[in-house]
Design goal:
178 residues; 9 strands; alpha+beta; 4-stranded mixed β-sheet; 2 helices; 15% helix
Amino acid sequence: MQKKFAHRFCPRCAEPLREISVENETVPVCTKPDCGFQFWQNSKPTSCALIPDSEGRLLFGTRAREPFAGMLDLPGGFLKLGEHPEDGLHREIAEELGVEVQIERLLGVIMDSYGAPDVHTLNFAYLCKITQGQPRAADDVASLEWLDPTTVDRTRLSFEGNAKMVDLFLLDRGQPKS
């Protein structure tokens, strides 16, 4: 069973929620019989870009906001409702870096959490190249750095998933994990 659900009231009718167990998962349900709302919890989808330069360094941003303000993060972010991961990636890259990218391929999908341990994420990691513009820090990115993925200080990475994505990049390049 998962830990207790944080919300106490139904988002549809404002009646109290109660928890039931369905296939070993805790599911909050509305106590009002004619509402029947079930609050299934899912991982939040994100997309991120691994953008190498001609020297094989990766572009990282320094987070301007919590969680993990001041730490390194790969460019990208949360998808909007119904947004395709590739469309979300293009939107996030334009917002954060002010550039356009071409997606070369999906490197993999990584599970992680976003700050609080109860916010689970499903992260689509794409290998990309810049096709228009020069990257500049914008939106929730304080600064940018090009770093060697084999020597990047992993204690500076904001999320565990970033290290896993760097490993995917290195494996894609035929290099061992750092």
